[in-house]
Signal recognition particle protein (Tepidanaerobacter syntrophicus), 294 residues
Amino acid sequence: MAFESLTQKLNDIFKKLRGKGKLSEADVKQAMKEVRLALLEADVNFKVVKELVARITERAIGQEVMESLTPAQQVIKIVNEELVALMGPAQSKIDFSKDITVIMMVGLQGSGKTTTAGKLGKFFAKDGKKPLLVAADVYRPAAIKQLQVIGDKVGLPVFSMGQQNPVDISKAAIEYARKNNHNVVIIDTAGRLHIDDELMDELINIKNAVNPSEILLVVDSMTGQDAVNVAEEFNKKLSLTGLILTKLDGDTRGGAALSAKAVTGCPIKFVGMGEKLDDLESFYPERMASRILG
Ligand code: GDP
């Protein structure tokens, strides 16, 4: 289960605090040392941990907590609030302000990008939208086929021009969408095993050609800090509008979920919770913090 070890450790720390009744400053500081270690072990970014623990400590050794009748409870409340603030603010919505909402899906191979494109299409269709999926990952014929299979499963059309130039495909897809009353266009762009200039240039070219409402980076939460580094690189080049963390149903330690927003400044918009095409949820920082605190 995701966050299992982190949740267990935090609960142990809080249990010790509860057992003490009134807390001294030293008690809080000791507990914070342990929280810091637990977060680092969960692969949360070092700088993020440092700043987070400093904020929690400052609030926790404040008068209100120390003089409260339930100081441990107050400390837990502060940790919860700071986790929410770290992953938030509040869930960020998709920008549907244009007639046709163009969404570029970007990400490394294996992150879950193609599956998530289908999940997102299904998610929007349920909401009354008319999505069109676009096969612009042209280097692997299998990727086009995969999107078609997913399109069939979710009952959405897939626009494909085989292995032609992805910029031309994307432009033609938007034209097609306009003529056929699709109001959401989800472009599945190429994935690679590693970030390289060629990939980035291609994505920049598509971005410039289609002026998307959203550029969503799909990252695998199982890869922890690597996911966050990938997000930073993509964001530098593309100015992402949001992140989608996949595989949160697995035994991810928590690092990506807790660090991604703080490190990149990009909000997490959705989370992938399984292999099935229904397993996509809007991201709510409060819900994630509750899961982490158990
Ligand atoms: P792409 O190469 O980035 O397009 O990745 P795919 O969409 O092909 O996904 C790679 C693998 O991850 C597939 O086996 C998917 O079923 C799986 N996958 C994608 N999202 C999730 C998720 O949220 N949870 C789980 N458990 N598996 C996922």
